[in-house]
Amino acid sequence: MMSSDEPGATPFHSAQASFSKFQRQYQQTLDRWTPHVFQRWSATFCLLALFMLRIVLSQGWYIGLYGLAIYLLNLLLAFLQPKFDPSLEDDLLADEIEEGGDQSAPVLPSQRDDEFRPFVRRLPEWQFWLSATRATLISLFCTVSEIFDVPVYWPILVVYFCVLFALTMRRQIQHMIKYKYIPFDIGRKARYGGSK
User: Fold this and answer.
1) Which helix (H) or strand (E) holds 176?
2) How many CB atoms lie within 10 A of CB 82?
3) Bridge partners of 82?
4) Residues 71, 164 contacting (CB under 8 angstroms)
5) pLDDT averaged per 10 residues in sequence order, the chain, 196 residues
6) What is the pLDDT of residue 40?
7) In degrees to the nearest 10, what's the CA dihedral of 18, 20, 22, 28?
8) How far apart are CA 25 and CA 33, in angstroms?
9) Where on the phi/psi map is residue 61: left (φ > 0), alpha (ψ -120 to 50), or beta?
10) 50 three-class SS
11) Residue 104 DSSP class
């Protein structure tokens, strides 16, 4: 017979053990999905299509769709931006010079093209996919309840989102052109040390 002094005897400990077991299984599933990029994104786009089909057929939950679209746009912008933003480095250098900082201190490398710097994303692809999938699942779950079906005039939301998308993408493309970076691997991959 178990005594009440044992740690596994309380309901809280058994619930905590069940929750940690669930967390391990969830993490193992995510770890198995990591190398399958195409299949992960295909599943996410299927979820998005299902969510949009739900919106179109029910003719409601436009605020939920708008909120999801804004969130996905935010994720896309973070995915396209470098982790170390060159415009922030320029601003910090200009502020230091304005405040009377040491202008004679050597800065290495002397030009931006002197050294290869790989593109490191602010939001890695895995986190982008995981956040987008979670947000889509939550949005799909919210369409079950009438509480989230706020009546709005949806064409205004569509026009506003299109304008917002165009302006933010234009700004992002100008930033990419100004600082000469491309957030995607384009072209032939170089192979080192192997047969061609």
Assistant:
1) helix 154-179
2) 19
3) 121
4) no
5) 55 88 90 91 96 93 93 92 74 67 52 60 89 95 90 91 94 85 67 56
6) 94
7) -150
8) 13
9) left
10) helix
11) S
75 within 8 A of 131, measured Cβ to Cβ: yes
Residues in the chain: 196
Q: In angstroms, what CA-CA distances link 191 with 39, 175, 179?
A: 26, 30, 27
Phi, psi of 82 (to 5 degrees): -75, 150
**SS3 state at 82:** strand
Can you name the residues that pair with 190 across neighbouring β-strands? none
- C-alpha 192/C-alpha 97 separation (Å) is 43
Amino acid identity for residue 79 in this structure:
F
Instruction: For residue 178, give the 3-state DSSP assignment.
Output: helix
pTM value? 0.72
